[in-house]
Amino acid sequence: MTCLKTDVPAPEELDIPALKAKYLAERDKRLRREGGEQYVRPTGDFSDNYAHDPFTPVAERAPLVEDIDVAILGAGFSGILAGYHLRQQGVTNVRNIDHAGGFGGVWYWNRYPGVQCDNDAYCYLPLLEETGFMPSKKFSDGWEIQAYCQKMAEDFDLADKALFHTLVEGITWDEGLKRWHVRTNRGDDIRARFVVMAGGVMNMPKLPGIPGIHDFKGKMFHTSRWEHDFTGGSWTAPVLEKLKDKRVAIVGTGATSVQAVPYLGKYAKQLYVLQRTPSNIDERPNPPTDPDWAASLQPGWQQERMANFHRGAQQFFLPGEPDQICDIWTEISRNLNLELEADGFPALDIGQIMARRDVVDFQVMERLRRRVDAIVEDRETAESLKPWFRFMCKRPLSNNEYYPTFNQPNVTLIDVSSTQGVERMTEKGFVADGVEYEVDLMIFASGFEVTSDLRRRWGIATVEGENGLSIYDHWENGPATLHGVTTDKFPGMFYMGYIQGATNSSTTEQFGRQAEHLAFMIGETIRRGADKFCATAEGVAGYVAHCRENEVDMSEFQQGCTPSYFNNEGDKELKWALFKGYLPGWDAWRDMLADWRKSPDLPGVAFEAREAVN
């Protein structure tokens, strides 16, 4: 295991009870009574800014009134994978519909300086063997990922059919037509036999609800609507030369900010980084792809690598299994495996293994805190940048330039944890701890609606199934599905994302398996000559009961975490938790779905045949 870290502290160096108390104290400092409601949807001028696409001009077109087989709402990875698997089932009369100006989803919108994938690209980019594409390096740049999305769309005959700059405003089931009416802001009425909700996980930007946000007279934008005209530079060449005489503030210190801050610090006259909770950040090994390694790969290599990633990131490696990923995501499993190997892989039950894994968690987090001390020169700043929480309480990150940026004289970290966020904004800037800071540009790296209520995340006013039932009422207490992809009373409607299924550490692998399953359901409906497909209430109830019986109770861990999108800002009732543990595991869930597809009666769904024509 050549990627083992040599600076991991030994367990006896740590006072784990004291660390647990420290973690809880740091969590409590940041808990806000309003939870996820501290973030707001864009309104007024901001609403126009979010609806506006600063990257691609809007092409005028006439409204469409048409009948199609499948409307895929989304053109990111989930929408593209849905299109690919439908094509595998022989279903090609489909349209991707997206409010962006092209394919890519979050990789279309995120064009901030330094944007990269923070997962191993050889796992994250799907269907590499099928397309013959190979990422240029371990962590792909955003522009490369978006270009790959476009390539996939073209390879799978999706590109010419897509509707872009098109915002879905309502979806209603028409029992007479046995179709869905998909209505948009372009005046379209697209009548689809099936609808796939493929908006992904990070499709709706959110703003911090800072008092006085509309009073600020300077420039403001969210990182997913980056305005290069104001900052200078471009997506592929992030030279922000127009900021040389500008005072800039960025709100947030998650994945986006960690990538953008080094560029802002390099070019801005003054940069203020407003931090409520620091991230856990390791070094980033990002070598270019070795052509000899790529040439040596055998068929099936990507699925094998993803399985290795899944075990390393979420569970533990098999005895003797090498770590193919070798980055921050797999370090705990990597270290644990080394310990177990030294002990001769003793026969331990799951509780004993998890107890040992917990100790390694504390060791790795202490190593990351010591990394801050080794890089950041100012002691007060270094202390503020240290992460005091369990490893997976926030998204683990890697970056080589973020911490050194705080050694520059023009970069100031402002910790706003004492006021649980930015105190307020003024015409000239922002206030923190009673001090007003004047800035020319305010950037919000405040993320997306990830685990908030469904209506906020989808942003679609009306989604009505049989008898006018709203999906928001049907799922008022959280999702109730069959296999995580469909539900009763909503015929031929399918869902993608982290919705009531076993979760895999690679988002795109999760999407791919959902797409494979729902595409089979659609293909089977067409093959049977059926007019209508729907999950039964009994089928949904049975699957919900199965999930509850096999759910790993993560509540203690999640509630002990610092507020983040993983726990919907400290929410105790996680209706839309990003990760719901499934005790049998990812492979068992995939096998269960594959066995269902092979069964002759397909329990839990009903097909309604077309009526005979006299």
Automatic annotation (TrEMBL):
Cofactor: FAD
Keyword Flavoprotein attributed: yes
GO MF assignments: monooxygenase activity
Record's keyword annotation contains Chloroplast: no
Annotated keywords: FAD, Flavoprotein, Monooxygenase, NADP, Oxidoreductase
SUPFAM superfamilies referenced in this protein's UniProt entry, alphabetically: FAD/NAD(P)-binding domain
InterPro entries attached to this UniProt entry: FAD-binding_Monooxygenases, FAD/NAD-bd_sf
Similarity comment: family membership: Belongs to the FAD-binding monooxygenase family.
Protein's name in the database: Monooxygenase
Organism: Novosphingobium guangzhouense
